[in-house]
Amino acid sequence: MKNWVIIFGGLLISSSFLEAKQIGSGEDLNWLTQAERFIEMKDPSIRKVALGALLMGLSCGLIGSYVVTRRLSLFGDTLSHAVLPGIAVGFIWAGEKENFSLLIGAGIAGFAGVCCLSLLKKFTKIHEDSSLGIVLSAFYALGICLLTRIQKVGYTDQSGLDSFMFGQVTSLSSGDIISLLITLLLIGLFITINFRQLLVTGFDPQFSKSIGIPNDFLQFLLWMLIAFCVISSLQLVGVILVSAMLVIPAATASLFAKRLKNYLVLSSLLGAGAGISGTFFSFLGKGLPAGPLIVLFSAFLFLVILFLRPEKGIIVCWLKARSERSRIIIENTLKATFKILEQKDFQENEITSLEIMKKRGLSRREVEREIDKLASSGFCTKNLSANDEANLPPQTVMILTPKGWEYACKIVRNHRLWELYLTNEAQYEPDHVHEDAEKIEHVLGEKTVRQIERLLKNPKLDPHGKFIPSITDIHQGNLPRPS
């Protein structure tokens, strides 16, 4: 989880500086008018960009599910950078910025990158991450050199070539739409035909080999589809950010999807939603590049789900942990009050804040805060009394309510039963059981406590000779409760 947050943080920062292009006519219109134009979809250029973003999001989300589950995130990043020399070669070959030649060059470079990775894996003992790093850096460096050479030579049509680095949706053509549609169909067909084989090979490669599934062939086809997805998405988000669209929607879906089919659907829908939303916000005003906004919106969805998902969201877990800490503090204070009353042979029912301070080893402010929590929860009543010692402020005096007294007895019962269990059954020394009991007393359920009571034959005294309240004593009021 921490790795995803670091990766997406870097994407958020880097995408803010990319020189990508904005959608729209360049007219100085207010954002409401622009939003209305986008929603109505009357402008052919808007329809084309929205359809391209939708197809790209579906493709990247669908194939990205396997990128994430098979830990191929660095592979996707490698491929996205490996196509750069192919774009440069395609430009040199055609002598102009012609999309078909550029995409053919990118495809050849992507295929070459996949072949290099396959050869390194087959004929060397280099780890996969090292192989990916070698191919990524070598191909990307070659691409930079070729682009620099193009600028030095001074081709007349070289302006805008860097759009493949950062994305330029305004240059999206019908051919780009067709390539995106073909890529989506190929990915969908491949997953539909090989769904079970992909599931088995991803879960247990050794078992899949033993039953005759061609692991290496399926892996190679998967790599090629990732390459096609990267190449067809270049015009929208560019070389640098296309790998983000392979990772973020799938990583977002993995936070709450439990079955692979649901995971695939959610990932593709999240990718499509990010594509449409990014292009929409790019259309709203000037200076808002579409490619980075698509990635930013996808990362935003990831962060929202990461923090707010119902069961394991960061905020939900934080609130649960805070509530748990508050409960433990209340239980520790109630246990302390029981022991204070026990020291008085239950002849008194009042407990002062000074007594709790000495018992708990806390400051006056902390004890006052705990007493306030007990009172607000209905476990005690409190009032002030004059302090007998000079120059000291009045003390808070608390009296447990029947509800608080019963809760205190249950915590003491859990603690002392566990101490006796460790002593009798686990052969712990009596002076070594207190720390374990301090932790376990807060998590023991009633069913477990009753099982321990039956196992120990309903004991009355703990290893230190102190009284253990039973559930019958608590419910029937047989305890020496303070009057």
Written overview of the protein:
This protein has about 475 residues and is mainly alpha-helical. The protein has two domains: about 1-310, ABC transporter involved in vitamin B12 uptake, BtuC (Orthogonal Bundle), CATH 1.10.3470.10; about 320-475, Arc Repressor Mutant, subunit A (Orthogonal Bundle), CATH 1.10.10.10. It is about 70% helix and about 5% strand. It is built from 22 helices and three strands. A three-stranded antiparallel beta sheet has the order 1-3-2. Helix 3 (about 45-70) runs antiparallel to helix 14 (about 260-285). The chain is elongated, with a radius of gyration of 33 Å. Mean pLDDT is about 80; it is low at about 1-20.
Give the helix tally. Answer: 22
Shape: elongated
CATH top level assignment of the largest domain: Mainly Alpha
Largest sheet: 3 strands, antiparallel
Provide the number of structural domains. 2
CATH level-4 homologous superfamily of the largest domain: ABC transporter involved in vitamin B12 uptake, BtuC
Number of strands: 3
CATH topology of the largest domain: ABC transporter involved in vitamin B12 uptake, BtuC
**Sequence of strands across the biggest β-sheet:** 1-3-2
Helix and strand succession? HHHHHHHHHHHHHHHHEHHEEHHHH
| Proportion of residues in helical segments | over 70%
Flag low-confidence runs.
Answer: 1-20
User: What's the architecture of the largest domain in CATH terms?
Assistant: Orthogonal Bundle
Rg over CA atoms, rounded to whole Å, is 33 Å
Q: Tell me the distance between the termini.
A: 55 Å
Mean of residue pLDDT?
80
Strand content: under 5%
What structural category do the secondary elements indicate? mainly alpha
